[in-house]
Amino acid sequence: MSSLQLVVLNILRDSSPKMPLTENHQSIEAFRLDRDNKPLGVGIQIRAPRRKSHRLDSGISYKRRLRMSRIDSQIAGVIFDLNGTLVERDSESDHLRAIRDSWLIQRGADPAELRARSTSGATTKELLHGYEPMEFSEHRAERFDPGRLRRHPETRAILHRLTKNRGLALAVLTNNVTRYLERCLEELHWESFFTYARGCENGVKPDRQVFLEAIQALGTCACKTVAVGDRPEKDIVPLSELGGFGIELSWRDLGELEERIAERRFSHAPAPSGCITCARS
Ligand SMILES: [Mg+2]
Ligand SMILES: [Zn+2]
User: Fold this and answer.
1) Full-model pTM
2) How far is the CA of 34 from the centre of ligand 1 (A)?
3) CATH class of 66-89+151-280
4) Which of 62, 118, 206, 218 could crosslink 169 through cysteines, CB 3.0-4.6 Å?
5) Which ligand neighbours the alpha carbon of 89 most closely?
6) Alpha-carbon Rg for the chain in angstroms
7) Would you kindly state where each structural domain of the chain is located, as residue ranges?
């Protein structure tokens, strides 16, 4: 049986008790069910009757979203980080931790003992000390299940609106291996939203060259581009040094992103030296 099913629900309106769906409601969205037919995530949107402001998952009212769509933020491109920003960090994921531990066991190590001896909170980097990190990253990239990485329930809808409604060009840069990124984009069905996607094999953040190539691929200017990430030093500062903007954000708060771009609420402004791409042209 297909996991995608249309489910019609009774909804709760702002003040009234439970009321049934009527023809006045504008639309309903399909959402995924797991094998036990339980809804996955909370991404259900049922638009209330016209002229009634209805809060969506991101906390932005429908009216406010309409108003935002009329604001020209001057931003043409967005460069996302992957882990910690579009999906949870590796270190937050029980699923990825299990893959790491079984890899260590296969090599004769005892993950529990390594954790007990850890002085830095048992990070993957520390536990893998003495092993070949790229070999592990490639092993993990083949075996993990992107669907098991936690992410904001509206991520797909947000990426859709940024590209299709606002006409922004999107890039994703990760210091993870390309195979990991490819599998996330393919299996989460995000591929069509990104003009440019790049893993660590040919340069890593915070190298500014990595950001410069992304700007060129997006066909924007640094001063019209915003970097979005959970680790400013790697994800944002290099773009700000090139003359772009930044929004420090974790995947849990991704619902704020559209509003922050529209209202130009940036956490990082361009460096005083100005826009490198404008200066060159
Ligand atoms: Mg990150
Ligand atoms: Zn510029």
Assistant:
1) 0.75
2) 28
3) alpha beta
4) 218
5) 1
6) 21
7) 1-54, 66-89+151-280, 94-148
